[in-house]
């Protein structure tokens, strides 16, 4: 007596529904994890660029022999020109939102101070005058992340810095 066995080929309807449900749950978890990572990268990029720019400006302004632009107390400018070690440096934004420095004495640069994943806007330098014997500037700017995300991350920064 021969027994005939039929092999099951394919999935049952219940198995397909279970697989589709599990795939849907796992894919939504994966997408959520990617969005959280992107949000963290955006925040970190904005914070790092802002801190670096403030630190760089603080260092350069405090070591400057003189502030050439803005020239007088109360005046403001979208660019800053400093004399450091007898070299004139110009700080300004380009058309793409890059915060740049250029050595105007030796005609070197410009060099971007911000990362490729951030832009800067609203750059403004205001000369406050001589406070306690120091030439003092108020600096304002906004750093925005260029990382692709539904909501852009930006951070407005302001500080007051004086020469030594």
Which labels suit this protein?
single chain; 164 residues; alpha+beta; five-stranded antiparallel β-sheet; four-stranded antiparallel β-sheet; 9 strands; 38% strand
Please give the structural blueprint.
Blueprint: H1 13-62, E1 66-69, E2 76-77, E3 80-84, E4 87-93, E5 99-103, E6 108-112, E7 118-131, E8 134-145, E9 154-162
Antiparallel strand pairs: 1-3, 2-7, 3-4, 4-5, 5-6, 7-8, 8-9
Structure, briefly:
By secondary structure, this protein is an alpha+beta fold.
Description of the molecule:
The strands form two sheets. The protein has a five-stranded antiparallel sheet, with no helix packed on it. It has 164 residues and is an alpha+beta fold. The chain contains one helix and nine strands, in the order H-E-E-E-E-E-E-E-E-E. The chain is rod-shaped, with a radius of gyration of 28 Å. The chain has one domain.
Derived structural class: alpha+beta
What fraction of residues sit in β-strands?
A: 35-45%
Morphology: rod-shaped
**Uncertain spans, ≥5 residues at pLDDT below 50?**
none
Report the order of strands and helices.
HEEEEEEEEE
Number of helices: 1
Estimated helix fraction: 25-40%
The strands making up the biggest β-sheet line up spatially as 1-3-4-5-6
């Amino acid at each position: 007596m021969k027994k005939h066995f039929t092999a099951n080929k394919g999935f049952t309807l219940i198995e397909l529904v279970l697989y589709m449900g599990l795939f849907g749950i796992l894919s939504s978890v994966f997408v959520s994890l990617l969005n959280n990572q992107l949000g963290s990268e955006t925040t970190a990029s904005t914070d790092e660029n802002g801190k670096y720019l403030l630190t760089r400006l603080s260092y350069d302004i405090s070591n400057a022999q003189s502030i050439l632009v803005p020239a007088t107390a109360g005046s403001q400018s979208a660019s800053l020109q400093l004399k450091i070690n007898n070299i004139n440096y110009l700080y300004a934004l380009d058309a793409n939102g890059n915060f740049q420095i250029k050595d105007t004495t030796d005609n070197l640069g410009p060099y971007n101070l911000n990362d490729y994943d951030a832009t800067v806007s609203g750059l403004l330098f205001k000369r406050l005058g001589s406070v306690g014997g120091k030439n003092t500037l108020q600096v304002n700017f906004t750093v925005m992340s260029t990382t692709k995300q539904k909501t852009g991350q930006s951070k407005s920064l302001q500080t007051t810095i004086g020469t030594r």
